[in-house]
Amino acid sequence: MASVKLTNVKKIYDNNVVAVHDFNLDIKDKEFVVFVGPSGCGKSTTLRMIAGLEDISEGTVEIDGEVVNDLQPKDRGIAMVFQNYALYPHMTVYDNIAFSLRLKKVPEDVIYEKVTKAAEVLGITDYLMRKPRALSGGQRQRVAIGRAMVRDSKVFLMDEPLSNLDAKLRNQMRSEIILLRQKLDTTFIYVTHDQTEAMTLADRIVIMKDGYIMQVGSPDEVFDMPDNLFVAEFIGAPKMNIIKTKLLLENGKYYVTPFGAKIEVDGDKGKELAARKVKAGDVLLGVRPEHIELADAAAHAIPCTLVVDEMMGSELHLHVDADADGTRLIVRVPTLGLSKEQRKKLVRGAKLNITFEGVAMHLFDAETEKNLLT
Amino acid sequence: MNNTEKRHMGLKALNRVSNTGIYILLTVISVVWLIPFVFIVLQSFRVENTYQVGYVIPKQWGLQNYINLWNSDFKRWYLNTLIIALAAAVFQTIIQLCMSYTLSRFRFKLRGPLMRFMLILGMFPGMLTMIILYRVLSDLGLTQANAVPGLILVSVASSGMGYYVSKGFFDTIPKSLDEAARVDGATRLQVLYKIILPLAKPIVIYTILTAFMGPWGDYVFARYVAFGTSAGYNVAVGMYSWLTNDQINRMYTTFCAGGVIVAVPVTILFLCLQKYYVEGVTGGAVKG
User: Fold this and answer.
1) Residue B252 lies in a domain
2) Which CATH superfamily groups domain A4-233?
3) Which residues of B touch A99 (CB under 8 A)?
4) Which residue of A90, A92, A96, A104 is the best one to mutate when testing the B interface, meaning the one whose CB has the most B CBs within 10 A?
5) Which value does ipTM take for this structure?
6) Chain mean position to CA A20
7) pLDDT digits over A327-342, tens only?
């Protein structure tokens, strides 16, 4: 159990490519922090610098108050789970889990106790004498977690541990990681490119792009108040719709005019805009698919044409093109409450009207792409 | 019988014919390969005449040739060869595997140029270095009667150059295994011998075998370094000295017995380790 502090951490490779720029983060004891971002954003590099598997070009990494920049991975008090499990193929599951303890010359009876306890927690007791190749992906990942567990580490690092699993198993393992976290009650740093994993697991999410931190916040914060367009589009599935539009200020009220419709920015968001004295002008309007509704033709409704309909079970994802300029939007419609008649009408080429509430809107500066309200 | 069945029958017959052809060819090749070996074994047991005779199967069988061997300098030569080959096998394997692991896992500034340099250096025939090597060994006093340490030095000194095959094999072992082991508390050396080498068993055996085989069959350089001093001969050089015009009549069958004794350990080694050897030769390229 320990805090982790990264101060001005930078990673510059030999070919002068900067993978991580000035990374600052304070991870509290027992916190579950997830680094998330697209490929090449520097999330794994940052994790590997914490682990000691990559040199730190600039800045400091502290674990439990001690600067660990020049310590070997084994001396940092960390345990790590790798994307491809990294189990030693020539050793049995038992030997894999016991490996680190044997290196520390822990007595065999203590090793036995620890390994069997970890195996029980992870439900792999029956496979202890098997070699990794005789295990399924999920079982292998459990062994990898078991190997990290027995080390009693201060910090638990996980580098995309679920990426190699199929979708069903990934969901199952995700909930097991949540349970494991409750049992271990230690500091977790988890890397993933999957925003669902980030949202479900994290206390705090660090969203990265091109080596920069785009936002740090709780899942609620990054979802409800994305700092910038990148975070807005990255968090949430299907991703947020972005519409180029204008912000109008009339009689102290703010309006947006997507595709010719005029929708008031009402509620707290309108007040906040007024309080910040935001000027009228070009903006990027973000609306989440689940906040768009199908509507009858009305003054503020936007006429669209249905291009693709995806049946997801509990909901329909409708990909529509706005008739005004062909901008592609995604609308999420719950199937519950949708009559058969209505469903039948939702076919390719169908003409629809959509609308959304002012409170559901996110407004970004057209140039800086920063949220106007954060 | 419908058309599909006919086509299948046709394919089976064709397979049978081509298989038969292949087996006949392979049998002929193996017989041709085995003839010299069988010939030498048979000659080594012939006691009625020591020079070449017009027949293959001995008329009188016996172990006289092997007893002659025992009473000659052969023991010394055999021991010399064994010492050189074993030392080469041990040191060359250690150096070569460490070199391969380093080039496979570490990234340092001159890694690329170093590998290219060794590749180019390796293209020059070893014979070119003979004169200068002899000069160096001679200055160090490692020729003639002291040829054994000299030959060990020569075969071990260049062993890092043969890193290609094992580096290729190590490259196929995921780096995350090294990283996992390092996080688990292993040093780089422990990673090598606890994780990498057990996984690279075929390549380790391949390296040992090739390192052993080089000096075991060496003739040209060994003769050059020992230069007429029987105490420094290896088996190839020593036995060849029996084939001079004045000795061949007397020593021919003893020579054959020596050939058998030389072949025995290598044959046993290969029979035991054949599986790994084949994996080692082909493994670097295809192991996923």
Assistant:
1) yes
2) P-loop containing nucleotide triphosphate hydrolases (3.40.50.300)
3) 181, 184, 186
4) A90
5) 0.84
6) 18
7) 999 999 988 888 888 8
